[in-house]
TrEMBL record:
Residue ranges of domain SCP2 in the record: 51-132
Keywords (A to Z) from UniProt: Ubiquinone biosynthesis
Pathway this chain belongs to: Cofactor biosynthesis; ubiquinone biosynthesis
InterPro entries: SCP2_sterol-bd_dom, SCP2_sterol-bd_dom_sf, UbiT
Higher taxonomy: Bacteria, Pseudomonadati, Pseudomonadota, Betaproteobacteria, Burkholderiales
Pfam families reported in the protein's UniProt record: SCP2
Keyword Ribosomal protein on entry: no
Record family assignment: Belongs to the UbiT family.
Lineage top rank: taxon: Bacteria
UniProt-listed GO biological process terms: ubiquinone biosynthetic process
Name the UniProt record assigns to this protein: Ubiquinone biosynthesis accessory factor UbiT
Organism whose genome encodes this protein: Diaphorobacter nitroreducens
Free-text function comment from the UniProt entry: Required for O(2)-independent ubiquinone (coenzyme Q) biosynthesis. Likely functions as an accessory factor.
Length: 172
């Protein structure tokens, strides 16, 4: 984690107003797809057992959207919006990005009231501790850049691509 995270940023209200009108289910499908690809096989069995059939919600306050899902024993699956999930985790979009990049500590966000857990806080602490225990370079956005993914899945093809200009992250 960096010593000086960026200044807090909140999405403009009109952006949140537009995003809040989008249907929730497609966003939940996208989120669980990403979580399943990046995290599900890293979770310890005892955490998976504890998550079984729990209703979870990630709420992005400034975007005014929520992503609802469950762990079905094999994978995370999207669910219909839940009024009272077993665990709801809320923060602004920037804070979730900083957490995913491991540029901000969840405890710091929690004590600064920028990250809120509601419902089964014991479940929330178990999930937080399990995520903290996993060395996850997959949460680095550079890991998911198209060239990085291609390099992992089709290295021969990736070697045939021309180098990127410096403006796009290539070498000069």
């Amino acid at each position: 984690m960096t010593a000086t995270p960026p200044a807090p940023f909140t999405l403009p209200r009109p952006v949140g107003a537009v995003l809040s009108r989008l249907p929730a289910y497609p966003g939940s499908v996208l989120l669980v797809t990403a979580i399943n690809l990046a995290l599900s096989h890293h979770l310890p069995q005892d955490v998976k057992d504890l998550l079984k059939d729990k209703r979870l919600s990630i709420r992005v306050r400034d975007a005014r959207v929520a992503f609802d899902f469950t762990w079905n024993g094999q994978r995370f699956a999207p669910s219909a919006p839940q009024a009272n999930p077993d665990l709801a985790i809320s923060a602004n979009a920037q804070d979730f990005v900083l957490l995913a990049q491991r540029r901000q500590d969840p405890d710091t966000l929690f004590f600064n009231r920028r990250l809120v857990m509601e419902g089964d806080t014991e479940l929330g602490l178990v999930v937080k501790n399990a995520l903290d225990a996993i060395d996850l370079p997959v949460l680095d956005p550079r890991h998911w850049a198209p060239r990085a993914v291609l390099s992992r899945w089709a290295p021969q093809l990736a070697r045939q691509l021309p180098p990127l200009p410096p403006f796009f992250g290539g070498r000069s």
